[in-house]
Amino acid sequence: MNKTIWIGxxxxxxxxxxxxxxxxxxxxxxLKLNADHSGTITASSVAVPxxxxxxxxxxxxxxxxxxxxxxxxxSFEAINRLVVGDISFHVDVSDHGxxxxxxxxxxxxxxQWAKLITPMTAEQRAESARAFDPAGRVKSLGSxxxxxxxxxxxxxxxxVTPHVRxxxxxxxxxxxxxLVDVDRARAADGSLRWYVTWTK
Length: 200
Fold this sequence. Notes:
It is a single chain. Helix content is 16%, strand content 43%. It contains five helices and twelve strands. It has helices spanning 15-20, 53-57, 113-117, 122-132, 182-187, and strands at residues 3-9, 28-33, 39-47, 67-76, 83-84, 87-93, 98-106, 144-150, 155-161, 167-172, 175-181, 191-199. It is elongated, with a radius of gyration of 18 Å.
């Protein structure tokens, strides 16, 4: 069963998260993959709401900038049947016990995943950053999409094709991470293909 949490925040409430993680953790999808290719999914996104509870529940203040964070958790039975927006996943197991995953991330104006994860204009991202961190240390929220996959064993290899500026693949132990600059992804064509390999 899926669980969704809505958090309307203004100001310093979530700054410890940014200090420990990064602004891209607010616009991310995290998968924990089991050996049988089932698993759990956690996703979060940010948006600029028209109003918040603070607008109605506060006297003597005029609110200017707003940001809302939505987080959801759930599970999936087979990674090959999972689609997030229009991001798809395909896992193949070789006879030698190597497991490879291909993640297809569409690019261009029609990409659906960006509308789910970071449905904001550049101006709204700056507005949300001002609400999130009045001190100005955070300049933009929602400019980077993070896809993190926790595998059953350590990553053997990871890479992305084709080369697109603002896209980075990395790994640390059993975690594989893809970072995508949303604006550069929207300006590109075709699809990214992210490959991750591990042992069965």
